[in-house]
Amino acid sequence: MSTAIYSHPDCMRHEMGSWHPESPARLQAIDDQLILARVADLVEQRSAPLAEPAQILRNHTPGALALVRDQVPAAPGDYYPLDGDTSLNHYSYQAALRAAGAAVAATDAVIAGSIDNAFCSVRPPGHHATPTEPMGFCLFNNVAIAARHALEAHGLERVAIVDFDVHHGNGTADAFRDDPRVLMVSIFQHPFFPYSEVEPVTPNRVNLPVPERCDGELVRQLVREQWLPALDAFKPQMIFVSAGFDGHRDDDMGGIGLVEADYAWITRQVMKVAKEHAGGRIVSCLEGGYELSSLGRSVVAHVKVLAELE
User: Fold this and answer.
1) Would you say the pTM of this structure is higher than 0.90?
2) What is the pLDDT of residues 222-237, one digit of tens each?
3) How many CA atoms does the CB half-sphere of 167 hold within 13 Å?
4) The domain containing residue 248 runs over which residues?
């Protein structure tokens, strides 16, 4: 497969304090592990452009856009708190535009056929950002923006969103709650932040809560029994992935016991669905993952499957 990694140095300039787990070091850890695993030279490296405001506004209200754009501090060392764990610094709006722009550009490239799939190594993450407000480390919902771009700019009729972050992608679920063009499937620890989706299965959502301390066997069983039948029946023309790696057993942000092999296995299942129904078209965007070593290793496992380098 022809795989591209989209990123940009601006994504490392956004930060919320030296104590904060959603740090620039996350992208450096991914880069280091891709080089160490000798994967970086085997995939195409592409620079993330800035998203246009009109692309953001396909998924977010003008007020949500303005909140991020207009509240960035003038001084590089200052912070503007949006909630208890989400802040803006001087570079946050630019980084958020790069993160969303990566997802949009990757969507364009995959649909055009210049690459088969892409991984967007970007931050800030996005899947908690609702159409009306940023939250949970997230400013704009990168995957939702890209999915709307595929539907509205490219005319696709059916897209699927796969989310395997340890936290439920509440912003994505809110964005497409009543949109039959989008099927969202996810697995997430519950009860856990953001404490949503207690009745997860609807005609266009198969969002499955799992208990703390569950392992990869339960996750694989749920994927086989519930995700895959729904995806096959839906026949998506493109798949977007909210790739959160904070369910790894070494990551104390959550309490699920996944390992690199589980992320590779999930990615293989998504690849099979994409090849069957979507011409192999996948755009994956980084969400969570805060223990740096396991994050980097898990991304390597994910990208190796996307690029068929196993």
Assistant:
1) yes
2) 999 999 999 999 999 9
3) 25
4) 3-306
Structural domains of the chain, count: 1
138 in Cβ contact with 129 (< 8 Å): yes
pLDDT in tens, 36-76: 999 999 999 999 999 999 999 999 999 999 999 999 999 99
Which residues are catalytic, by number?
Answer: 128
Q: Output the six-digit token pair for 158.
A: 């059916």
| CATH classification at residue 63 | 3.40.800.20
| Nearest alpha carbon to residue 89 among 14, 196, 152, 168 | 14
Rama region for 275: left / alpha / beta (φ>0; ψ in -120 to 50; rest): alpha
Distance, in Å, from the CA atom of 23 to the CA atom of 7, rounded to the nearest integer, reads 15
Q: Which long-range contacts (CB under 8 A, 24 or more apart) does 66-74 make?
A: 67/133, 67/134, 68/92, 68/93, 68/96, 68/134, 68/139, 68/140, 69/93
Helix residue ranges, H only, 11-80: 25-36, 53-56, 62-70
